[in-house]
Amino acid sequence: MKRIWVLLLVGVVSVVSLGAPSEALTPSHRTIDDKTGDAPAQVDITRLQVSLTSKRLQATFHVRDLTRKRRSSYWIGGDFFAGYPDLWLITWKDKSGAVVTDLRAGEDGFRRHCQHARGTWNYKKDFVHVSFPQGCKGYTFSDGKFAASTEMGSSYDGVPDFKLAAAKVSVARGASMAALPPVTWSGWQGVKFDTKLTAAHAQLGGTLTRSATPYGCGDVLTLTNGRMDGNVFRHPHRVGNISVLGKVAYPLGIRSSMTPAKIKKLVRQSKFTLRTRRYDPYGTATYDYHNWVVGAKGHAFYFAYSEGSASTFRMGLAATAKVARGQMNMNGC
Hints:
The chain has 333 residues and is mainly beta. It has two domains: 4-164, no CATH class; 187-329, no CATH class. It is built from three helices and 23 strands. It has helices at residues 197-204, 260-268, 321-329; strands at residues 4-9, 12-14, 29-33, 45-52, 56-63, 87-93, 99-105, 110-112, 118-122, 127-133, 139-141, 144-152, 155-164, 187-188, 191-192, 207-209, 220-223, 226-229, 241-244, 274-279, 288-294, 300-306, 314-318. The strands form six sheets. The protein has an eight-stranded antiparallel sheet. It is elongated and about 80 Å long.
């Protein structure tokens, strides 16, 4: 079976930005015309249009003849490769004819599903358009040198390398560059509880800190808007806790920015039972309140707050109620 790939190589940074600032005159949008007749029509680039902003990277590959074949014998994809860490963004047609658009990160080539990535194929006008959101899976497309190419079997076409600098797009304070899916009772972003954190890291990217100790601390995977860890879990190298920030929602629509009173109201409106324990951690009669809700599959949502406070100081979804209570009592991890 022959496959068609459409590839765009980009500079990318995970978690932190690397590299020198871009040149002052480097554009954020480019249109590049390419010589025709130097590759089979299906992969012969005639024009590339690409743009980079602080919110999204987009590219349109115009080819001589974007052919639709029966039985999905041709694949077309986008493969975005970067300096460090490597990041590939790829769009292709599967055997059912459905368009699939995903990330491949690192030299290991593990796939990271990016929910808001898009691939559009227009057979009448002979172009493939790909669009990827900044911040997806913790990655940000940076200013730098780009390249674009197409490939089908041993056939290949490409345009000369070029530079892009991201145009700034205003984003509301505290907002995420890319909307992330909510945390469910099963897990987050396709990662379930008890998954090895190394496997979660391979799937989602981010930064993995191997900090498991005999005293209850576990490994920690830090992501764009949250973290997964094995703290106070029976398997410190596996996902036992998920904590998120910003607009990412927990079960029942709860968010970290909500007041304790609002969270309690949402729990009371649900079918679940709120459990609460009161503590006086410093013997000053100023109490902390530890709260948890056991949901589907025995997983527990928890939140803790101090008396008189309008915000929580700890929140998350844990594999068990025991882990939830341990997370609220935890110090030093």
